[in-house]
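Here is one chain, start to finish.
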Amino acid sequence: MDLRLPTPAGELTRAEQKILDYINTNTDAFLFSSIGQLAQRLEISNATVSRFARHVGCRDFKALKSMVLEQSPGPAVKLTATLGQGERFSPQAWLERQRAYLETTIQQLSSEEFERAVEALCSARRVFLHGKNASSSMAQLLYFRLRRLGLQVSLLPSGGSELLEGLAQAAEGDLVVLFSFSKLSREGRILLDHSRSAGYRTLAFVGRTCLPAEEWADISLFAYRGTEKEYHSMAAPAALLDALAVAVAERLGTEGTERLQSLHQMKKDYFPDG
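Its structure:
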């Protein structure tokens, strides 16, 4: 990163410049360091670090970290911001926060849009799933759920020419599912853009309620994952996916349950020991 300081870099001492260089080149490590750890790593005193913090307009080392957090993107920043909300990490407090995320998701959930998603999955000739980075886990989960119900479902490669080779198979009557929680990726834009010429429908899981027109899918389902600078949880998206899978199973009726029963019997026949 390139930390913006109220004090010009030319007015920093050599030791202070050393601290600034470390912050710019090792931002994540800095955010997880105590003042003593940073001083030891740079072979300077704790007092030097404290003077640097005050020199650049911060009350203390904690305020310096806050300033770096404000200017820094990335997952480590989000994790640090989340951990910094209490004295120590509490699993109970974390799970309470997930409950709040689920409540927000429930409040924003459109029953009509959810029903459209169920209908699209059940009526699609084939379902193609695309997830990138952390969202790939959601694509895998939905793939597992839908395949057990007997749907013709495929995972698209995350990117590159392999994505295009997989997407070239999607056509009218198919459904392409994508995950776009924070911002629409380059691959996501390709999926939406190609639907106009190929004729397939699109279903997007999103983390924003207001989207520009060029990011609209045919169907959108909202799942809340936290504020922009929080560690983004997958609790609400996973719960929403499971709700969708259960609703699809209900819509399929005996077709879905018979498929599950057949699979269960095969497991008993071929893997009796589990």
